[in-house]
Design brief:
single chain, alpha/beta, Purple Acid Phosphatase, chain A, domain 2, six-stranded mixed sheet, five-stranded mixed sheet
């Protein structure tokens, strides 16, 4: 199986990986964040298209500094009185991006979970029949029990976020698996720390699951420039499969 995460609108690259997966008859697993809301490297993305680069620069500066509450206030102040028009503009661009992604994946065997920037409803309705969206559940792939759990860490209240309690419930429902796939990393500093973005929070429920069930592998994304891409947590080999928008590369299991 091939795995990618943090596609963030890299439609051409995703199409090439999907074609490779079809040719080799391998399933492709996409571990969330399909749309490009904000590219922290050059400030491009849907937010810049709608709100302008100056707003994005301020937002990125606050989030990079870990000032999430201030980032929330910035957004509230910027959008106040025109929430509906901004929401509609976002919706048009988000929908268009999911349509393009769906076309790139058509015909490939794909399993997808959502990340914090995704809108699950729009994602689901724009994927072709060959793509299976999994909110949380276990699928058998290449003879392995693969647990897939959607959701980003709670931060700004976006549709793709899930609470820690909800994440714990979703993980508990999986039971033991051979391979765990999530969008976010476990609460391990070197895996959750972004050397550029500054973020240092991972998921404690995921870390608890690894300790309790000891899957052989855990794949995830979310952190674009991690301190470490590979780390062992007890019996589990943990791997960040990479910032696909920047690398254009998929990871092959094993």
């Amino acid at each position: 199986m091939l795995l990618v995460a943090d596609v963030h609108g890299a439609v051409d690259g995703l199409g090439r990986v999907a074609a490779k997966a079809k040719a080799s008859r391998e399933p492709l697993l996409i571990l969330g964040d399909l749309i490009n809301f904000i590219d922290y490297r050059d400030l491009s993305g849907i937010v810049a298209d709608v709100c302008g680069e100056a707003f994005v620069a301020d937002m990125v500066a606050l989030r990079t500094a870990g000032e999430m509450a201030a980032a929330g206030r910035l957004w509230k102040n910027f959008s106040e009185g025109r929430e509906e028009s901004i929401r509609e503009e976002y919706g048009v661009r988000i929908e268009a991006e999911y349509v393009q992604i769906g076309m790139a994946l058509d015909g490939a065997e794909v399993y997808v979970i959502h990340g914090n920037v995704d809108q699950p409803d729009r994602l689901v309705r724009n994927m072709p029949d060959s793509v299976r969206y999994v909110e949380s559940g276990v699928v058998e792939i290449e003879g392995l029990r693969v647990g897939l759990v959607s959701g980003g860490l709670p931060s700004l209240g976006t549709p793709g976020e899930v609470s820690h309690d909800e994440m714990a419930l979703r993980l508990a429902d999986l039971g033991p698996v051979d391979v765990l796939c999530t969008h976010v990393p476990p609460a391990v500093r070197v895996l959750a720390g972004d050397v550029i973005g500054g973020r240092k929070e991972g998921s404690q429920p995921i870390l608890d699951y690894l300790a309790a069930h000891r899957p052989e592998f855990h794949y995830f994304g979310d952190i674009h420039q991690p301190q470490a891409t590979n780390w062992r947590v007890g019996a589990t080999a943990c791997r960040n499969v990479g910032y696909f928008r920047a690398t254009g590369r998929a990871v092959r299991h094993r």
